[in-house]
Amino acid sequence: MKRRSLKALAAAFSLTAPWVVVWVLTTGIPLLLDLIAPTVAYEPPALVSSIPTGGIVLLSGVAVLGASFLLAWAAETAEKDVPRSFAIAVLAVLAVAPEYAVDALYAFNAGRFAGTERGIEAGNLAVANMTGANRILIGIGWAGIALFTVYRAGSAADPAVETRSGFLADAVTLDRGIGLEVVFLLAATAWAFLVPLGGGIDALDMFVLVGIYVAYILVVLRGDVDPDTHHIGVPAYLQTYPKAKRVATVVGLFVYSGLLIFIAVEPFAHGLEELGQAVGVPSFFMIQWIAPLASESPELIVVVYLVNKARSTAGFNALISSKLNQWTLLIGTLVVVYSLALGRYGALPFDQKQSAEIWLTAAQSLFAISVLINFEISVREAVVILTLFVSQVLLEFLIIRGVALPATSYELLVGYSAVYVVLAAGLFVSRRESFRALLRETAGTISHAAFPEEESTPGADD
Predict the structure, then answer these.
(1) Measuring CA to CA, which residue among 246, 251, 244, 245 is closest to residue 236?
(2) pLDDT in tens, 295-327
(3) Strand partners, 377
(4) Greatest CA separation found in the chain?
(5) Is residue 189 a contact partner of residue 372, using CB atoms and an 8 Å limit?
(6) Where are the domains of the chain?
(7) What does the H/E/C string look like for 281-298?
(8) Which of 55, 54, 64, 59 is nearest to 96 (CA)?
(9) Using one digit for the tens of pLDDT, what is the confidence trace for 24-56?
(10) What's residue 455's pLDDT?
């Protein structure tokens, strides 16, 4: 096991090494010189500085792949010492860090150029990029991983997959432990419907949404560690380390993979944008959909890895945790970045179309939650989620390209929002008993975390 695990670790690190070299020579050294010797001139080696866009996409994409494996191994190893939900929450934050960086850049430019056409466009792009990332996470992430899980179960046993009679009736069953994440996501989704009514993302949105995530982390930190969780491969080997060495290794892997993803995903996303624009794809469409798809790739890779190890529950937990932190921290912190660039407090403004984008994203989230309240997702439900997502994006693309349709872009977004809400309402009604049970269980979990019962010891009452 030791030899195979060390080879796997070496292979993952080797995938990241070429991009590390490129980044150090083109960006790292200039940044260091600016700090310690700003008058010193530096020119990157011609071989590195002349890498074409396709090469940048390839090298940075391969680095993201390697870092994603390291991140997944670190999270699995950490489950020996911390609650699984907390380990996955850390994984989720690191995996979507590039999305935060991209969105923060647009929010910063919105504040820096406030009152100008460039500032208005940057504010709209910040919202568009954020809503695109969130809808991709459900439309492709949740649906795609559910379908992949069922497909994989045809060749390998997965206890989470149930084969049922009926049209597309096979389902992925989920552990009830994810109920906490589902309820907190529902709370954030309910608030998100109100965000456009304030005319922008403001301090109240920040306090509520960030507060929801902080409360969630405080609850999962009080959870129980399950040292008996069975692992194989690299995590199993790393868990044999003494605790001090194991913790240092986990922290090191988290830090390295997190930094690697941070420095690789943005060039990867921008490279894809350039390649798309070169073949005629509109830049706004690229920023809303292609760039977020690239920045979401680390977590999707991690989840595919977990599902491929028949750890479907952990995979869906990671997806839900990613959705939760993007739907809370990502939205809530945009106003902070905007205000810093503005030089004073200000709400991040956006136009009417972006209001509809937020409503559509919240509606999609509501429907996805209604699917999971009975702790399973069937092939039929996954296909519906995927179909609604893909059809909306395709119709939006046609409108951007100038194709005449019977609805404007705004009307299309509102119409799809209504469809999601109607479907969600129907599921909440039909699954109301499951929903009540979910709320009761989550209330019990929160109560236990806030007021842990003292363990009684023999003779305590004597």
Answers:
(1) 246
(2) 777 777 777 777 776 566 777 777 888 888 888
(3) 172
(4) 82
(5) no
(6) 2-450
(7) CCHHHHHHHHHHHHHHHH
(8) 64
(9) 998 888 888 888 887 888 888 887 878 888 898
(10) 46
pTM over 0.85: no
What is the residue-wise DSSP string for 387-429? HHHHHHHHHHHHHHTT---SS-HHHHHHHHHHHHHHHHHHHHH
Q: How high is the pLDDT of residue 362?
A: 96
∠ CA 265-267-62, nearest 5°, is 60
pLDDT of residue 192: 95
Q: Give the model's pLDDT for residue 254.
A: 86
User: Distance between CA 261 and CA 270 in Å, rounded?
Assistant: 14
C-alpha span between 330 and 206 (Å, rounded): 9
Q: Is 145 exposed, middle or buried (0-12, 13-18, 19+ CB in 10 A)?
A: buried
The low-confidence residues of the chain, meaning pLDDT below 50, are 455-457, 460-462
State residue 84's pLDDT score: 65
Q: Which residue has the tokens 């509809």?
A: 356
DSSP state of 197: G
Long-range contacts formed by 298-301: CB under 8 A, 24+ apart: 298/64, 298/67, 298/68, 298/71, 298/95, 298/96, 298/98, 298/261, 298/265, 299/68, 299/91, 299/92, 299/95, 299/96, 299/137, 299/141, 300/140, 300/141, 300/144, 300/145, 301/64, 301/65, 301/68, 301/69
HSE-CB for 209 with a 13 A CA cutoff: 28
Q: How far is CA 195 from CA 184, 209, 425, in A?
A: 17, 10, 21
CA angle 403, 407, 412 (to 5 degrees): 105
The CATH H-level superfamily of 2-450 is NCX, central ion-binding region (1.20.1420.30)
- What Rg, from alpha-carbon coordinates, does the chain have? 23
Cα separation, 304 vs 302, whole angstroms: 6
